[in-house]
Design brief:
two-stranded parallel ribbon
Length: about 425
């Protein structure tokens, strides 16, 4: 192991503990024991995973870094990289890595681990909006670092889902904390790093109708998104090419209805239909699902508090990837995090993240072990159960509908 990578990992651990100290979560003896025991152990696990190479790194990420290195790192951003379907913000990190003498794999994973810490901090702040309990905030921070999908995603797999998820969780936190402009900016950053950030975007219509954001804030989204691609444009990439990158990437999705995902397409047999027809079924269902939540939220908008709005965000992050076709193994990553936050703030909802993480980890197992632990439909059943339970939680987050009593007067149900 390169000693420089070990030092960087140590500084990331110090950053994690520093964030807890700054938040005032290391005052009591129990808080100190919990943080100083469990947080360093989470980093020890990550250290053990650092040198593990997956096929994704060998076949793709290493190739992209070498292409940037061969073309002058930052100057290489001005050229389209063969086989790379990631948007350019992540390539900025890879360009920096290509200039270093430290082993590429270690820096790729250390970048993801840094955002593991950001993700834990964002989750802690989100918990703080929903509850004032310091114990729950600390618990959320630690649990995110120990969540299996978070541990495996960056430190073992070398993936970067923690980056877009960090900005997505921050976006929800800032919206609920009445900072609408910053919320929209973070949502744009989330989508700019990975297209999967769009699973959260439907909740912004809910934020609009409930007054959490205004129409003027929506214009921040394209401004921030465009700002993220400008460095690559200045390096030589085409502006329109980068602006439409995600639309062009849809042509490379393939015909598969499911790629190791616990989605609707693992639950039902669509073999009697053509793939294109079956895909349209899922798209229509996802559209109707969103419309149903919108209608409900419009009708109850005056009663929608932070818990109900947060419940809507969780519903979208589970329901949209569950219903859409062509989903991959890691597309429930945001749902993993938000359902964990839900359970921390409302312990009776603890079954929800268990179901979601079970469904997610079946996909992880399928890729990392190259075999199925059990049929993916079991994960789909668990994900459907989580969706139904989240819907119940969100309904209960609204105050009872008043009923008319004797004499036509309104009384609580």
């Amino acid at each position: 192991m390169d000693y420089r990578a070990t030092i960087l990992l140590y500084f990331e651990l110090v950053l994690a503990l520093g964030l807890l100290w700054r938040e005032g979560l290391l005052r009591s003896r129990s808080q100190q024991i919990m943080a100083l025991l469990l947080v360093p152990l989470a980093f020890v696990l990550r250290y053990c995973f650092l040198t593990y190479e997956t096929l994704d790194y060998q076949d793709w990420i290493r190739v992209w870094i070498q292409s940037l290195r061969d073309n002058g790192a930052w100057r290489g951003l001005g050229q389209e990289i063969w086989s790379c379907n990631y948007n350019v913000p992540y390539l900025y990190f890879l360009a920096f890595i290509s200039n270093s003498e430290v082993y590429d794999l270690l820096l790729v994973k250390l970048t993801s681990i840094f955002f593991d810490v950001v993700l834990a901090w964002a989750s802690m702040r989100l918990v703080g909006v929903l509850t004032k309990s310091d114990a729950k905030k600390l618990f959320a921070f630690v649990l995110v670092l120990w969540l299996p999908s978070v541990l495996l995603n960056g430190a073992l797999w070398g993936q970067c889902d923690c980056i877009y998820a960090s900005f997505a969780v921050l976006a929800v936190y800032l919206a609920l904390d009445d900072k609408p402009g910053w919320s929209v900016a973070c949502a744009a950053l989330s989508v700019s790093f990975k297209l999967q950030g769009i699973f959260l975007l439907p909740v912004y219509f809910v934020f609009l109708v409930t007054g959490k954001i205004k129409w003027k804030h929506i214009f921040i989204f394209p401004a921030v998104y465009i700002a993220t691609i400008l460095p690559a444009v200045f390096a030589g990439r085409g502006f329109w090419e980068l602006l439409t990158l995600y639309f062009r990437n849809t042509a490379t999705i393939g015909d598969g209805l499911n790629y190791n995902s616990s989605s609707l397409y693992a639950l039902f047999d669509f073999n009697s239909m053509s793939n294109s027809a079956a895909a349209r079924v899922g798209i229509v269902l996802a559209f109707l699902f969103c419309c149903g939540i919108y209608l409900w939220m419009v009708l109850r908008r005056k009663d929608a508090g932070n818990r109900a709005l947060f419940g809507a965000a969780v519903l979208f992050c589970i329901g949209v990837p569950f219903l859409l076709p062509h989903m991959h193994d890691r597309y429930f990553f945001m749902a993993d995090i938000l359902t964990l936050v839900l359970a921390v703030t409302c312990p009776v909802a603890a079954l929800i993240p268990l179901c979601v993480n079970f469904g997610s980890l079946l996909g992880y197992h399928a890729y990392l072990k190259m075999r199925f632990l059990c049929p993916m439909r079991y994960g789909s059943i668990a994900m459907l159960a989580a969706l139904v339970l989240t819907l119940i939680f969100t309904i209960k987050a609204f105050p009872p509908t008043p009923k008319k009593g004797a004499g036509g007067k309104m009384k609580a149900a």
